[in-house]
Amino acid sequence: MLFKLLFLCSNSQQQAILKNESVSKKYYIIDFDSTFTQVEALDELARISLQDRPDRELIYKKIEDLTNLAMEGKLSFRESLAGRVQLLEANKDHLKQLVKHLKKLVSTSFSRNRNFFKHHADDVLIVSGGFKEFITPVVLPFHIKKENIYANTFVFNEEGKIIGYDENNPLSNEGGKVKLLKELQLQGEIHGIGDGYSDFQLKESGMIKKFYAFTENIERKSVTEKADHITPSLDEFLYVNNLPSAISYPKNRIQCLVVGDVPEAAVKYLKKDGFSVKQASSLEDKQLKEAGIILLGNKESVPVEKLTKATKLKVIGYFGNSKKHIPQDACTDRGIVIFDNIKKPESVAKSIAKFINTGDAFKSSNFPNIPLPKVKNGHRLIHIHRNVPGIMASVNQVLADMQLNIVSQFLMTNERIGYVITDINAAYDKKVLKELKQIKDTISFRVVY
């Protein structure tokens, strides 16, 4: 279509069209180590190749130090790379083991957002100071094109042992990512995502519009303080750039307030799942206003009047018998789900995460219990309303008016509320969300994914 349009236009019009086309095009430059994966691959390769060496711990430490010095900008990348490769004592068999290991260590938020890579296969470039021998087999299953993978390559001897690397590759040098992008001459708006100093250099050089410091796996102060945006997950990056995501709202933006004697296992579970966790000595109004989740230790309580301050609150986790300390009806009327358990504290955290992630309210002490399957290639909408006649008809009429096909629908009620989950299989106009929120007797509404 573009070529046909160009053919019909004058030279000046053609130039204007091509200029607009290049401006509208966006590229996403993504690092591999500690970004696409949770670990530094060369460090992991060392643990495989040196596992039989009696001095392995000393060598591991040297390799990790070389990695960190380069990532913090305190050592040239060339010096760091040469030093690490020299210490590896690795071969092709070790690389096979490494690839198998790395496939299990893809960053959590990358794993759940495969569809982003599928739909933006032409726009995503993996640019790394690591090596194609282990990067390519890890990222290819994510629909990333082989020609869009830029990294170093090892040099092997006849026995398959790593003896060096291609020193002519720009990525083996200090400022290699900048040199590579100059060679590529990408026409469009470029965004960079990474955890290290070499990623920030792209922004420093003026080669990219924005640099996003990725902190899901490691946070380097020397990098984050220079970033345009700190992104604790890929979900956050997709959200701020209005790109399709596996979840509708980044979990790092959902604040979990912890008060009282809450088991550490539960706190760790929610932190690992990506929620922002804050400890507090009591339920202060200012903190309540921002909390999406509250974890309360046994015998802690929430007065009814405090709930009016908790405008973002979606769920309470209680480590004891919540019925004695939490106003069940008031929470239900405000669409706040309660999970409690004194014997299995981690199960409370798991239930909370599952509710936020999928809408599953099974084992709630105050909500209709709906165990839910996960829908693939679709969207899940949650509507909580007062239990009055006609709500389901209103919900379905809105969807019908927007010509949205319902894949599955779940409804449970108690004497106070109705809880309906609707899965649809098509993209939707944001107008539908506004109309669902405006249905009479709606308590709350949200898109899960």
UniProtKB/TrEMBL annotation:
Coiled-coil spans in chain:
78-105
Q: Which Pfam families match?
A: 2-Hacid_dh, ACT_AHAS_ss
Q: Does the keyword Electron transport apply?
A: no
Q: GO biological process: any one?
A: L-serine biosynthetic process
Is Magnesium included in the keywords of this UniProt record? yes
This enzyme catalyses: O-phospho-L-serine + H2O = L-serine + phosphate; O-phospho-D-serine + H2O = D-serine + phosphate; (R)-2-hydroxyglutarate + NAD(+) = 2-oxoglutarate + NADH + H(+)
User: Needs which cofactor?
Assistant: Mg(2+)
Q: Which GO terms describe its cellular component?
A: cytoplasm
Q: Which CDD domains match?
A: ACT_3PGDH
* Annotated InterPro entries: ACT-like_dom_sf (IPR045865), ACT_dom (IPR002912), AHAS_small-like_ACT (IPR054480), D-isomer_2_OHA_DH_cat_dom (IPR006139), HAD-like_SerB (IPR050582), HAD-like_sf (IPR036412), HAD_sf (IPR023214)
Domain ACT: where? 380-449
Keyword list (alphabetical) reads:
Amino-acid biosynthesis, Coiled coil, Hydrolase, Magnesium, Metal-binding, Serine biosynthesis
Q: What EC number(s) does the entry state?
A: 1.1.1.399, 3.1.3.3
GO MF terms listed in the record are:
L-phosphoserine phosphatase activity; magnesium ion binding; NAD binding; oxidoreductase activity, acting on the CH-OH group of donors, NAD or NADP as acceptor
Where does this protein act, in terms of pathway? Answer: Amino-acid biosynthesis; L-serine biosynthesis; L-serine from 3-phospho-D-glycerate: step 3/3
This chain's function reads:
Catalyzes the reversible oxidation of 3-phospho-D-glycerate to 3-phosphonooxypyruvate, the first step of the phosphorylated L-serine biosynthesis pathway. Also catalyzes the reversible oxidation of 2-hydroxyglutarate to 2-oxoglutarate.
Q: What is this protein called?
A: D-3-phosphoglycerate dehydrogenase
